[in-house]
Design brief:
The chain is α/β, with parallel strands linked by helices and 360 residues long. The protein is built from 6 helices and 16 strands. The termini are far apart. Pfam families: LRR_4, LRR_8.
C-alpha cells in the first residue's frame, strides 16, 4: 500500500495533475510526500475520503496553495489547524463524518469558500467568524450537538442551502430571515418550539423542513405557499387551546399580545416604529439619531425587528396580533397528516388582524 501511495503521488508530481485521489488508503497521517520540497502547487482537488486521519498539517496551504476543493469525508479528524485559513482559493471543504468538537475562528478567512460540509461531527457551537464567508452557498451542519446558530450567520449573503437537521436547537435567530438568497432550510429533528415571525417572507425561500420537532406547534403564515415538511410536529402534550399552544416560545421582546378588541397600539410600539422609519428612510447624510445615543440592544432591535406584519409588512417590535389557522382546517390537511401544527399570521394591528386572509 505504501509503495502504491508513493507511486500515485510521484506520478501526480511528474505529470502535474490537478486532481489527486487518495480515498480508501488506510492513511493515519497526512502523506509527507505531498509536503516535500515545493509540494504540489498545481493541485486543485484533493480527495482523501475514508481514511483514518486525525489532523491536518500546519503547512498545508504553503505546500498546496492552489487547492480549490478538499474532501476529507469519513476520517477521524478532531481538530483542524488555524492555518486552514490560508487556503485562499478554497471553494469546497468537506469535513463530514469526522470527530470535530470545535471549529477554529480562522475558518472565516476562507473568503472564496462556497460549500462547507460539517455533518456528522460533535460540534457544540460555531465561531461567529463563519459569518465572514460572504460567498458561501451551501452549509451542512446536520447531526451535531449545536444548541444555537451564530447571529452573524445572516452575513453569509450568498447562502442558498442551510441544513441543521438532528441537532439540539431550541430556536433560530430571526436574523436568518435576512438571508435573501436562501432557497432551502432544513431543521428537522431538533428541539424547536418557535420559528421567527418573518420566516418564509423571502420569495427565494421555497423549501422549509422542520419535521419531528415535537414541541413546535406554530408555523408563520408566510410558509403556507411554500414546500414544507412538518411531519411529527406538535404531537407532544397539548392543552387544547390552539392559540396559546401556537405561541409557545415567543421571543422575550414580545411584551403584548394584541387581539381584535385592541384598537390602540401601545405608545412604546409606536415610538419604535417611528425610530425605525427615521433610521431606515432618512435621506443620505442626515444623522438625526447617532448610533451612540441608543443602547446596543435597542439598535439591534431597530435593525432586526421581531418581524413584519403578514398583512401590510409594517415592522413590529414589542407587540403582535396573532391569527391562527389550524393546518387540519386548510387544503394542506391531506398532505400533512401526522401533525397538529397551525399557521400563525402575525399582524401589526387589530385592523390587519381582522382583514388577514390565509388564501391571499
Amino acid at each position: 500500500m505504501a509503495t502504491e501511495l508513493h507511486e500515485t503521488i510521484f506520478m501526480a508530481k511528474q505529470e502535474r495533475h490537478k486532481n489527486l485521489f487518495l480515498n480508501y488508503k488506510n492513511l493515519n497521517i497526512f502523506p509527507v510526500e505531498l509536503l516535500k520540497d515545493e509540494g504540489l502547487h498545481f493541485l486543485e482537488r484533493l480527495y482523501m475520503k475514508r481514511n483514518s486521519l486525525t489532523t491536518l498539517p500546519d503547512n498545508l496551504a504553503q505546500k498546496l496553495p492552489n487547492l480549490i476543493e478538499l474532501y476529507l469525508h469519513s476520517n477521524n479528524i478532531v481538530i483542524i489547524p488555524e492555518a486552514i485559513g490560508n487556503l485562499a482559493r478554497l471553494q469546497s471543504l468537506d469535513l463530514s463524518n469526522n470527530a470535530l468538537q470545535m471549529l477554529c475562528p480562522e475558518i472565516g478567512r476562507l473568503r472564496s469558500l462556497r460549500h462547507l460540509r460539517l455533518s456528522n461531527n460533535q460540534l457544540k457551537c460555531l465561531p461567529p467568524e463563519i459569518g465572514d464567508l460572504v460567498d458561501l452557498e451551501t452549509l451542512d451542519l446536520a447531526v451535531n450537538q449545536l444548541v444555537s446558530l451564530p447571529d452573524r450567520l445572516h452575513r453569509c449573503l450568498s447562502l442558498q442551502n442551510l441544513t441543521v437537521d438532528h441537532n439540539l436547537l431550541s430556536h433560530v435567530p430571526r436574523q436568518l430571515c435576512w438571508l435573501h438568497r436562501l432557497n432551502q432550510l432544513s431543521m428537522a429533528a431538533n428541539r424547536l418550539t418557535f420559528l421567527p415571525l418573518d420566516l418564509g417572507r423571502s420569495r427565494e425561500l421555497q423549501f422549509v423542513f422542520v419535521d419531528n420537532n415535537v414541541d413546535l406547534k406554530g408555523l408563520p403564515s408566510y410558509l403556507y405557499n411554500k414546500v414544507i415538511g412538518c411531519s411529527g410536529c406538535g404531537v407532544e402534550g397539548g392543552t387544547g387551546e390552539v392559540l396559546s399552544e401556537a405561541l409557545v416560545g415567543l421571543p422575550a421582546e414580545v411584551k403584548v399580545i394584541g387581539s381584535q378588541a385592541d384598537n390602540v397600539v401601545p405608545l412604546e410600539e409606536l415610538a419604535m416604529r417611528t425610530m425605525h422609519r427615521v433610521y431606515h428612510q432618512r435621506p443620505a447624510g442626515l444623522h438625526l439619531l447617532p448610533p451612540f445615543v441608543l443602547p446596543k440592544s435597542l439598535l439591534d432591535l431597530l435593525q432586526f425587528p421581531l418581524g413584519h406584519c403578514h398583512r401590510c409588512s409594517q415592522a413590529m417590535f414589542t407587540i403582535i396580533y396573532p391569527k391562527v389557522f389550524p393546518l387540519r382546517d386548510t387544503v394542506l390537511a391531506g398532505v400533512h397528516r401526522r401533525t397538529t401544527v397551525s399557521f400563525v399570521a402575525y399582524c401589526c394591528s387589530s385592523r390587519c388582524l381582522r382583514t388577514f386572509d390565509l388564501q391571499g
